[in-house]
Amino acid sequence: MTTPQINSAEQEDYKVARYKWGYMDKTGNLVIRAQYDDTRDFEDGLAAIQLKGQWGFINMQGEIVIEPQYKGAWAFQEGLSRVLTWEGKMGFINLVGRWVIPDTLEEVSDFHDGFARVKKQELYGYINKKGALMIPAEFVSASDFEHGYAKAQRSMKQGLIDTTGNWVINDEYDRIALPADSLVRAKQGNKYGFLNLKAQVVIPFSFEDASDFSNGVAAVKTADGYGLIDKSGAYISNFRYDHAWYANESRWVVEKEGKFGAVDATGKNIIPILYDQIFPFSNGRTFYRSDFTWGLMDSLGKQITPPQFGLVWEYREGLARVAFYEGIGYIDEMAMLTCRQSSWMLEIFQEV
Q1: Distance from CA of residue 328 to its chain's centroid?
Q2: CA 349 to CA 306: how far, in whole Å?
């Protein structure tokens, strides 16, 4: 266990939660009693919980594994948790609460691809899991690594670096995105185009706006509106939409005059532009909104339920959180109710 480092004045200055938080299973059974002032999701078998202003960790049986003692704690990433001490410093602990990287850091992000972004004297660099500075702090702005690449900026322009700190694409663009579908979206002046990972322009900078490629297709904007292109830059659909974005499962949500529908990767309209909003797709399902309430439809636009939910959230692990008049519940992919709570809290709780 770690040794608590607590500023007593700050520790006493916390707000007691009106409602306590706990954890339920997929059938709605309360498996960890609602007793915490705040909670986070489980990662690596542990969840951060707050008691009396201090953060610690419990396991999935509800047992305290790391005593509440920190001013702040974040979910485990790659086996390490970022924590904030009462002295205002950050470091990383392992799954049993031992310091792996001491609490000497002023600002640091979670680990991604084995690296954490750290701030030193107003500039950003990257440390490894031993706390060693592997990429010097020389960037005025930098992103987390994702699949071996990070966005970085030394002055006014942006580029991409790899995990050695070398430039893959030099910092000469007004805006740049992380690689997606092997291409990199970038902005030069007021136009967007696409590069490959050899820094070669493969689709010219000719679009007013652009999304990343997904499954070989990207949404882009010309003077005529939004449409779709393939990885050669060839047009797939007419440019007639007010907006378009990728919504998973080879579906793109399109907007026209305040109404929404969806097209497939060929540009064919598969859900008519009739709805007030459409959610991203998950396992062949999506939520749609009509007349202020939400319903569920399949990926071809067939309605599974009429509009009946006040609020909806995306599916996770086969369940979606929805709001009824009576409170919050969960539905499965066939819209069958798996559990319901007669409360407007967004998670299970009980007042203690």
Answers
A1: 22
A2: 29
Class of 1-105 in CATH: mainly beta
Can you say whether residue 33 is alpha, beta or left, with left for phi > 0 and alpha for psi between -120 and 50 degrees? beta
Instruction: Give the whole-angstrom CA distance, residue 282 versus residue 296.
Output: 11
DSSP letters of 188-238?
ETTEEEEE-TTS-EEEEEEESEEPPPBTTEEEEEETTEEEEEETTS-B-S-
The model's pLDDT over 72-104, given as tens digits with 9 standing for 90+, comes to: 999 999 999 999 999 999 999 999 999 999 999
Tell me the C-alpha distance between 263 and 246, whole Å. 10
Rounded mean pLDDT, 323-333: 88
CA 86/CA 6 separation, integer angstroms: 5
Distance of CA 37 to the CA centre of its chain: 24
User: Does the structural domain 276-352 have CATH classification 2.60.40?
Assistant: no
C-beta separation of 67 from 73 below 8 A: no
pTM comes to 0.87
Q: 308, 295 in Cβ contact below 8 A?
A: yes
Q: What order of strands is seen across the sheet that includes strand 217-222? A: 209-210, 217-222, 225-230
Tokens standing for residue 352: 């203690």
Same fold, 1-105 and 276-352: no
pLDDT tens-digit readout, 128-151: 999 999 999 999 999 999 999 999
Give 15-44 pLDDT, tens digit per residue: 777 889 999 998 889 999 999 999 999 999
Cβ atoms 279, 268 nearer than 8 A: no
Q: Where are the domains of the chain?
A: 1-105, 276-352
Distance CA 282, CA 294 (A): 16
